[in-house]
Amino acid sequence: MKVLEGLSALWETLRSIIPLTAVLTLFQLVILKKPIDNVKEFIIGFALSVFGLHFFLKGVSMSLLPLGDSVGKNLVVLERRWVIVIIAFVIGYFGTLVEPALKALALEVEEISVGAIPHKVLIHAVAIGFGLGMSIGILKILKDISYIKIIVPLLAAIIILAFFAPEAFVSIAMDSASATTGPVNIPLNMALAIGLASIIESADPLLSGFGIVGLTSIGAMISVLTLGILTKF
């Protein structure tokens, strides 16, 4: 049965990748009328992407999700809430550092800017913002604060910072916020938030546990815009 379940999960992963690959191949060969440079390498790469995504999703469901949920449920044993907030920042920060989409974006930015914006600087700046957003989200759950009271000031801060930051950093900030919502951060941080919200009596897991991804994205935008302003000096 386990073999059949494994094959079924692998088939689901294959089904999710085939349409995208087929569309791109169709555009390349039929519409653009350009050949695939290395067919053998393309086929091997396709197979690796299928197995890689399959094993990654399987690993996340077996490790990060249950671990994040367990950590979230057990955080309440810490009497000092500021310690919980700091732990949330650390988890968000290090989770962002391994996000593959962010690394790809940072390398592109470094290349386009001809080294003016080093990829490591951008990655750490985004990680700091993400961690702060994570901390705010966890504090919101602990204090049972309304999202409106948090989001409105943060959005106002983004608008103000956007006026003073270089125009290029405004675009980079928006892309950075999207890049943080990848396969590492979302399952880990949502599991952490939902696990914590499910233990606190005054918190509704549906209302409190969700929405934290948006706060982390806002935090990432604020940190990148701040970085842009600092580059002026």
From TrEMBL:
Pfam families: DUF1538
Signal peptide interval: none
Species classification: Bacteria, Bacillati, Bacillota, Tissierellia, Tissierellales
Transmembrane segments: 13-31, 43-62, 82-102, 122-142, 148-170, 182-200, 206-230
Provenance organism: Tissierella simiarum
Record's protein name: DUF1538 domain-containing protein
Keyword entries, A-Z: Membrane, Transmembrane, Transmembrane helix
InterPro entries registered for this protein in UniProt: UmpAB (IPR011435)
